[in-house]
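INFO batch 0412 | record 1 of 1 | parsing
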Amino acid sequence: MIKIIIVIFSILFAMSNVYAEEDMIGLMEKQRIELKEREEKIKVETERLNVIKKEVEADIEKYTKLLKQIEKSLDEAEASGSKRLKHVAKAYESMPPEDAATRLTGLDNKIAIQILLKMNSKKAGLVIGMMEQKKATVLTKELTKLKKE
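INFO prediction complete | emitting tokens
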């Protein structure tokens, strides 16, 4: 009888091992499927991020070109303005200092300073010397501030 019990326990133990192996195989299969699903999701997400990356790079390139065009336009406008300012400064240099002083006195300080800066320094000095004292003082202070900056 003991032999029968041992045989029965052996059979039950073997069956439990078979069930345990089947459970283990089922669990591994389930994990394999989950892993495959995760890999697929990662692949899809990677592709989506690559598309976004290309779009961002294209936008950066487009905006870089636009920025270069804007900078070029600004440089051209500045060069044109500087050219006109030099022309005006030459006109003031050719005037008698008294006349140039009278005309510069009537201008906005900022414009007068820009013209004086473009003039020959000796002629600009003569013009400032012919201005009324108050205007000459204001312009001189502004000119010295510009030189420090």
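INFO post-check: The helical segments are 2-94, 97-105, 109-118, 121-130, 133-148.
INFO record closed
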